[in-house]
Amino acid sequence: MNSLFIAVPAALTTAGVISYGAAYPRAQLFGKTISRTNSSRKLAITFDDGPNPAITPKLLDLLDRYNAKATFFLIGKYVRECPELVKETIARGNSIGNHTELHPNLFWLNPKQVRIELRLCHDAICNAICVPPKWFRPPFGMRNPWVIPAARELGYQTVMWTLIPGDWSEKPVDWLIPRMQPIAQHARQNLANTASANAPGGTGDILCLHDGGHRQLNADRTRTLAALEHWLPRWRDLGLEFVTIDDAVRTPAP
Ligand SMILES: [Zn+2]
Hints:
alpha/beta
């Protein structure tokens, strides 16, 4: 057989594997990531691209109303502009993560550039809250072979998601609400399984939403707020607990 016919599919397969490892949220090809909670009762709600003075304070109030804790993956340049908001987020029992300094697609950056992006955001957060964060989420979920090791050097575990409904879209909230339906569906299924097998445990969802926008500060995320206003009481009534990533991976006391 002509070697061309062997070489071309092999090249295509390699490209496919690389793009899977770079972009698929639960892929572990470029290093281990957290992409589920350790109990079907625990829902970890996460927000990227803040802090955002236009939305984050309202969101903190909404979360408080349902005794919900969440994890916020922050952009370093915004942390420098609103350190008080970051302090407030932590003071209200939420967790903070690193989402790079300028939100580039890390897939295209070399190891040194990746380290700088992580380090600058790390320093901004440490200056604001005096505690190094433990969680990192790559912008756009994009990784390459040196992203997760660079995060690990700074003491981070990388956090992905099970559901990303696309709340950055300009579409109305009536479009967004049904896209968050899988969370309730999983909760109902797990509840039915637990009731029939009397077997608690399983794994739960990590939901990726946005309280900011990486293009500019004060992005409009009122649709995200409205969709959460709709879902939080419903999820609570299904028996879900709203936890930070810290609690999502913590082994419950026996
Ligand atoms: Zn982002």
